[in-house]
Design a protein that fits this description.
312 residues, mainly alpha, 11 helices, binds fe (ii) ion
């Protein structure tokens, strides 16, 4: 047995080198990920992004703790500590991700698809999207706490994503409530989080397969869903999906940016690596039709689009 891992004791507490009252934003992203209550999780995600945004380089007094050695201030904002590798206790691992008792999670094939032209069916459709957004908060928070040693911009990007997913979740939940339902009322599946789990040790695969595969699928699906909702007369839902589609282009762009960044840094060929990762991690092979305009806006190259369009 070696020395106890001091870093493992920092979640929700403090290490000998951390500021007495203020765990880093990455530590608090982990706490938010473990938070089971959706409203509290969403509020925490938005607060973390606001705090990080107020804490821009060069560090200001408000976001820089004194260095424990008594020397110069931290060379980077302490609250955006990016180097420290955080680890999970067994209890935290078991509680990952924090989510409410409902919705019940079932295999994807057991989630019924219903007509959006009845109020119940429309509520079920909106619930499914609301569940995707809830999971998406978790995915973004997971990227923040799990992967140490990335450039600070990586953490800022994923904090932005977490905050925007929190907004999407909250807008959909509010609308769902106006239809007499709430988050948890319908069964849901766990496909998004499963891919997050599968790629927990591989940041390149995570960037390739979560934002730029699973989230990107939302770019393709959203206009089709909006058509149905327009025909069903639910203009508020269409309006919410406009906000979501706009933001999701940014999320996929963030996935593309960091996937390509990592490939370049590691001397990997992004175009040939992607299909290998799809096979290795058994990611869904995406099928047309694609929202080519949104995908191009999110940074997919012609070569990458050609691969997608060549799906057999
Ligand atoms: Fe979203
Ligand atoms: Fe997203």
């Amino acid at each position: 047995m070696g020395q106890p891992d001091v870093r493992a004791a920092t979640i929700g507490g403090m290490s000998p080198q951390s500021h007495p009252q203020r765990p880093s934003i990455r530590q608090r992203a982990l706490e938010a990920l473990l938070e089971p209550d959706p409203a509290r999780k969403a509020a925490q995600a938005r607060a973390l992004f606001e705090e990080a945004s107020a804490c821009q380089a060069p560090p200001t007094a408000a976001c820089t703790a004194p260095h424990p050695s008594g020397g110069d201030a931290w060379s980077e904002p302490r609250l955006l500590e990016v180097v420290e590798a955080l680890t999970l206790s067994e209890a935290q691992q078991a509680a990952m991700p924090g989510r409410p008792a409902l919705p019940r999670l079932v295999p994807a094939k057991d989630v019924p698809s219903r007509s959006p032209f009845t109020q119940e069916g429309r509520a079920a459709l909106l619930h499914a999207i609301c569940h995707i957004e809830f999971n998406a908060i978790n995915l973004a928070l997971d990227a923040v706490w799990r992967f140490a040693g990335m450039p600070e911009a990586f953490y800022r990007d994923w904090l932005r994503v977490a905050a925007e997913e929190a907004l999407h979740f909250s807008l959909l939940r509010e609308h769902l409530r106006s239809l007499g339902h709430d988050y948890g009322d319908f069964d849901a599946h766990d496909g998004l989080w499963s891919m997050c789990e599968k790629t927990r040790h591989d940041i390149v695969a995570r960037m390739a397969l979560v934002p730029r595969t699973l989230e990107a699928r939302g770019l393709d699906a959203t206009p089709l869903i909006q058509d149905k909702l327009t025909r069903a007369g639910d203009l508020r839902a269409v309006e919410i999906l406009d906000v979501i589609l706009r933001d999701e282009v940014g999320h996929v762009a963030i996935g593309n940016r960091w996937f390509h960044h990592l490939c370049e840094a590691r001397g990997l060929d992004a175009v040939t690596l992607y299909p290998q990762l799809v096979r290795e991690f058994e990611a869904p092979r995406l099928r047309p039709p694609f929202n080519e305009a949104a995908r191009k806006a999110a940074g997919f190259t012609d070569q990458e689009m050609a691969f997608l369009l060549g799906a057999d």
